[in-house]
Amino acid sequence: MSKNNSKPWNENWKIIENISEGGQGQTYLIKPKNNSFPANQYVLKKLKRQNDFERRSRMRREVVALETIDCSGIPKLIDSNSELFKNLDIPLYLVTEFIPGDTLSDYIKLGVMNIFSSVSLTIKLLDILEYCHQRGIVHRDIKPDNIIIKNNDISAPVLIDFGISFNKVDEYAKDLTPTWQQLGNRFCQLPELAEKSSLQRDHRSDITQICGILFFTITGKFPLYLLDSENGNKPHQREEAKQKLSASPNLSEFILSKINRVFDRAFEIKIDSRWQSISALNKALIDILYQFEKRMLQKGRP
């Protein structure tokens, strides 16, 4: 294999530094070597196991998804050779725009958010999610590591990593991730994403994962399981989470009850009992914002 074939990204891109390394691949901060692309910084993603056909197929699907997206809350695709995914002799890569800012995981290390900020961020994420769902794309891997707070401004979240997404465009493709495989993540494990589930392509899983993000930004805790094995409590009913929720500043019992009702429904085991639409969840969250702002005005705060 020639030098260019072994590292095809080297033709146009120069690696500046390593960003992160996960189970699926590695990401790097890069810059263009020539005038083929604007002189900015970008992100290179390449697979770890280049001979794994399923992972190559996943990268191809991620690129196909990004090609159909034009949304400020999702990184723009810049370059890729994923159309060659069937040729195992050629390493695959993709390049997206670089989004400056911390991941939500790192951002929360500075401290959990207040209710207003948490709910506002969640509503912004729901807007991004609705954009995807309208185009037949289900993310299936929403977690704090896959959300970047652009310029550390919570009004500008960016959803990344569509590596295990489902795209309606290739619903009947033979190279889709088999339904007998486990999907999702350890942040919020959902029964419908378990192996052999017939609901692995259901958009409502994304809505549940977004509710998990809301829970995380308020409590700093992962939902993990919808019900714990010890006493059957949902994430917000566990003692440490209850303490975190109660300690949230300027949170009245009335507003707390509304938030708990959001989580009551979000963390039901049966997907048909959870939030069924983005619009319904959005309406409930907007009401919480209204009640929070009303309380602040009553207390004489701007």
Question: Would you kindly provide a written description of the structure presented here, covering whatever features stand out?
Answer:
This protein is an alpha+beta fold and 302 residues long. The protein has 8 helices and 12 strands. Strands 1-2-3-5-4 form a 5-stranded antiparallel β-sheet, with helices on one face. The mean pLDDT is 89.
Give a concise summary.
The chain is of the alpha+beta class and 302 residues long.
What is the overall number of helices? 8
Query: Averaged pLDDT, please?
Result: 89
CATH class of the largest domain: Mainly Alpha
Could you give the order of strands across the largest sheet?
Answer: 1-2-3-5-4
Report the β-strand fraction as a percent range: 15-25%
Give me the strand/helix succession.
HEEEHEEEHHEEEEEHEHHH
- Major β-sheet annotation: 5 strands, antiparallel
* CATH architect. name of the largest domain: Orthogonal Bundle
- CATH homologous superfamily of the largest domain, by name? Transferase(Phosphotransferase) domain 1
Q: How would you describe the shape?
A: globular
**Distance, first to last CA:** 65 Å
Give the structural class: alpha+beta
